[in-house]
Amino acid sequence: MNKGNYEGADRTGRPRADTVSTNGQFAEGSNGKSSHAILLIDDRAEVASAMEIAFRMAGHRLTVASGPEEAFSLLARTRFDAIVLDLNFTPGRTDGREGLACLERIMADDPAACVVVLTAHGGMRIAVAAMQAGARDFAVKPWKNADLIAKVEAAIARESVVEPVATPSPDTAPAALLGDSAPIERVRALIRRVGPTSAGVAITGPSGAGRTLTALSLHRASQHAATAPLRIDLREDGALAALDGARGTAILRHPDRLDEPTQDRLARALSEAVRPIAIVESIAALTPGLHRRIATIELAVPGLSERQDDIPILARHFLREAAERFGRPLPRLDEAAEAALRAAEWPDEVRGLALAMERATLLADGAIVDAAMLFSGTAAASPPKPDVGRDYDLERSQKAMIAAALAEHHHNVSHTAKALGLSRGALYRRMERYGL
Ligand SMILES: Nc1ncnc2c1ncn2[C@@H]1O[C@H](COP(=O)(O)OP(=O)(O)OP(=O)(O)O)[C@@H](O)[C@H]1O
After folding, report:
1. Is 213 in the pocket of ligand 1 (CB under 6 A)?
2. Which of 156, 159, 342, 369 has the fewest CB atoms below 10 angstroms from its CB?
3. What is the CATH number of the domain that holds 45?
């Protein structure tokens, strides 16, 4: 997060949220100081609009996220020089726990993040906890906007002194794994624990579920984060030669596809200066020597069927990303579409979901994405299959069947109940039970 170290993008390759002038230099504020891109995470619209004006008058650009989900989606797409984080989102709460959890995740995703927290009056204990968790400064409510802006500017300036300027690489990890489910939390926790070590990590899981993103997240949490990782597809001719004299992170794809002698050659070619992160289909296919070198830790990325709660979060993120990329208005998922997405089968995992959301963004054109729009003309997903014969888990089958019927009847409970041969009350009870 060094200011001015890379034109138009940070070392993660993400575009900066602030403006870059036509000569490629960062724009300057009206007062001649550098203009910074700031993210405010605060659910209070009146605070946000007052801050937006104050930061703009000081020559900066403020982007507002009304809560953690929107903030993490923005942080995965855009780079900010500083983040101003309110520590309480739920009205009436002042214990700061929600904000501290958000801060911990921001710091885990990007240890160089520059965060200034806003704490409630008398919240010194929380402010201290936030500083221990990596915040650079804090402001206690009620603050004067001019003081807050000065604190943010000072925090950014301090950062560029503390952190040496690293040569940025657009190839360095964007690396923000989105999702709130327990399985993805476990992946994030493991990344935090083993990322900074030199241990070899073998990543397994279905293709398209985020194995490469997980590898990049590990790299980003490592001591080699400032340089681009070496990415080697071992199926290619002469791939091992890329390891001659190599240092830092090497992301290795398909080591398990090599024959045994070549796997052993690979194990020997991985010097101590290299930190291997491998994407592997079958750990069992590794020779003992290679297993020891690249799979000290096995990290299984869960498929979407194991973390359905993440599907709406990811879907909304990809809608925002696609709307930005195509310059189209942001569409909204209706309830039936959300239920259908959760219950659908995703053979291409997160990649398929992203594709479906790109299509939906173009088809909906700012309006509501309904269930019918989701599955027309794409092989990226199949609508939920009420296939009781094939799925022997009765609970899951029933849930899928109800979700499919609801989607088909545009969430009209009377029509859906009739189609399923249930009373409205019985359908409502089941919908509640399955969270539909
Ligand atoms: N948790 C996540 N949050 C945000 N984006 C994600 C997440 N998981 C996957 N993606 C996105 O989905 C797409 C597929 O992920 P990725 O390339 O990491 O999959 P993969 O398992 O490595 O697939 P393959 O091995 O087939 O290339 C990428 O665009 C990635 O950024």
Report:
1. yes
2. 159
3. 3.40.50.2300
